[in-house]
Amino acid sequence: MIFVATNLVYFLASAFLDPRANYFGRRPPVPESQVDAILTPMNLNDKVPILERWWAWLKGILLHWDWGQGFVQKSVNDAISHRMWVSAELVMGATILAVIVGVALGVYTASRQYKLSDRIWQAVSLVAMNTHTVVAAVVLVFLAVQINRATGHTIFYVTGNAGGATTNIFAALLQLFQKLALPTISLVFISYASYHLTQRSLLLDNIEMDYVRTARAKGLTRHQAIRKHALRTSIIPVATSVAFSIPGVFTGATLTESIYAWQGMGQYLVQTISKNDVNGVVATAAFTAVLTAVGAILSDIFVVALDPRVRVS
């Protein structure tokens, strides 16, 4: 399926993206022969039959693991091998925090159903779920700028993932925190709510099951029954959704990376599409397809690890 999907994306990208358009409107105009001379070594010349270009592209991957050259960065291999870790540095921490916060709030509110704290957190999560990424990011940037001005120091970096070189490990960690703080907060704010509301709903469904009632009849409180018995069963769908979020960890958060000028996979995808970079778009799609398959495998592993009924069957 990965092979089929990747090749399908190649034909679609070749049909809809026009690398030659990158040279339209230049002053002075770029001669067509010069454009051909640029595109042919990149295997992007539309004057060459599509099947011939596809076969050359496929042989390069199968024989040399070469995903071709692009306009955003000359080597597509180098671009993805670097940018995927830049995105992971940003999104992985945000994903872990969003899951922890969401599940913890789900347990907390489910054990206090219809109480004031439950109502308040539901309202906050509904607001967070309906807040657009751009809105959250712009508000955080505004607040960070005001804090930096008020203190007279750079507490938060509001743009970019590059910082000054330093040999002090503590200074490097502090600088990393300053760079990650704003985009991480914005990603956690817009992501945790789905885990919170899903976990709360699943817990409330399972709290009425016979095995939980039996646990409570043996003397456990509602909170203890939820944490020790209902949570393990109800967390399975959440764990599955987390497994399938792995492609998003390494392919980046497109809008967040664009706003904070974070040079990761999300920004790379936008740039490759805007610059008609066929090889870059296809490589990004293939990378996402592989991660989706990995997520599917991890999802099955999580289910087996969390549900003893599956192991027995």
Explain how this protein is built.
The chain contains 14 helices and no strands. The chain has helices spanning 2-16, 32-39, 50-64, 76-110, 116-129, 133-151, 169-206, 210-217, 222-243, 246-251, 254-259, 265-274, 278-306, 308-312. With 313 residues, the chain is mainly alpha-helical. Helices cover 73% and strands 0% of the residues. Helix 6 (133-151) packs across helix 7 (169-206), helix 7 crosses helix 9 (222-243) and helix 9 packs antiparallel against helix 13 (278-306). It starts with a helix and ends with a helix.
Q: Treating each run of at least 4 consecutive H or I residues as one helix, how many helices?
A: 14
Enumerate the spans where pLDDT stays under 50 for 5 or more consecutive residues. none
Cα-atom radius of gyration: 24 Å
Assembly state (oligomeric): single chain
Order of helices and strands: HHHHHHHHHHHHHH
Mean pLDDT over the residues: 88
Shape: globular
Structural class: mainly alpha
Largest sheet: none
Tell me the distance between the termini.
Answer: 28 Å
Helix amount, in percent? over 70%
Quote the beta fraction. Answer: under 5%
Q: What is the tally of beta strands?
A: 0
Defining traits:
single chain, 313 residues, 14 helices, mainly alpha
Task: Write the topology of this structure.
Elements: H1 2-16, H2 32-39, H3 50-64, H4 76-110, H5 116-129, H6 133-151, H7 169-206, H8 210-217, H9 222-243, H10 246-251, H11 254-259, H12 265-274, H13 278-306, H14 308-312
